[in-house]
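input
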Amino acid sequence: MRRLAALLLLVAALLSVPSVALGHGIGGRLDLPVPLSYFVVGAGVVLVISFVALAILWPEPRLHVGPLHQPARLTVRRGWVLPSLGLIGLFLVIGQLVPPLLGLETDPTRPSIAPVLVWVVFWLVIPFAGALIGDWYTDINPWRSLASGVRTGRAERVGLLDRLGVWPAVVALLAFTWLELVYPGSGSPVVLGTASLAYSLFLMGAMVYAGRETGLAVFDAFTPYNRLISAISPLGRRGDGRLVWRGWLRALTVLPAWPGLAALVVTAIGTVTYDGASATQSFGRSMGDFGQTMLGETLLLIGCVLAVGVAYWIASWAAARMIGGEWTAPKVAARFAHTLVPIALAYAVAHYLTLIVFEGQQLISAISDPFALGWDLFGTAERKVDFFITAAEPVWYAQVAVIVTGHVLGVVLAHDRALHDFGTEAVRSQYAMLLLMVALTTLGLLILAG
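output
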């Protein structure tokens, strides 16, 4: 009866969360349908009730049990379709440099393919789809395909990943988001082509030095990021290569403890936090002219990442103090880093939902005129974006559901890991993590509704 009562409380809390506008991407922000305090308190109540329900209904670790299948990949060995698509996309982006070099005039009223491929398909659609179908980025990774095609990077530096971890990838991810959020020319096809060319040369050098797989795992921002997100997927592969159903979130619990893993997830959360905060009116008023300069935006972007990192570190330190023994803040932070992955995904999905739906349609017209030269290769160059979502309520409900669900999943993962590592002290050890989850939920809703 106690478990049934706890389950009913959890369902009631989820149903009672009020709707809220979390508009982003296209069309600006929407008016809140209810007072701000209602949905902030409601989201916090959902997490607290989830925590209590888990303490009653989930007495033993469940996600650490069973065969440790690898996250699924889509292609069979020696497949060529997805690698070819990745290379075509890379060449199209870098090809944006060709028209200005040849002195050709482009049409500024037409969408070029580079911004859509980079900021919508590559940065959003691929990892979001990976959370459902598995690690397909490994197959579509253009730099991996390029290195394989030219037969470079075959000598792996074994142990480099254990020593450096993903810290170089953290720096690369922060640089990529800086290009997107701070640099004023982030939508320019020429800028994107130049950046892609420079990044390609950097990664090719990294693979020559460290090996194809090691170089990408250590230095490529998107290889570990996509592996993290795709570990949410319920699909996996057995040793013989056959697809199996391993269950949601299970791959997250068996991820290798790479050095810098927590920093990578914190960076993903912090950069989206900055993107949302910088678009609010209160941010503009408080930062003034400083927040409009490149230096100011850069410092604020780094500051948001550091703020999220410090909050996570404090929660890890508090958990370590409660448990005692050999547990330290760095060890707890490393062990619980995977619990932040659903939150990072939820932040991104809620924040960029309308951008994918609407701006992603520009790919249909851009594919007919990829360089904005006035072509119409497939008869779609004149197609306009269809803003078919006219009501605000569906967007409100969808984005609130994503934010709350991501944090509830974080609570579930943290509880399961605490049971596995701390045993009878699991519930007490998670008080600080629960406060962190509530704070991150509140922050996400406040920013995206601001």
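quick obs: The chain is about 65% helix and 0% strand.
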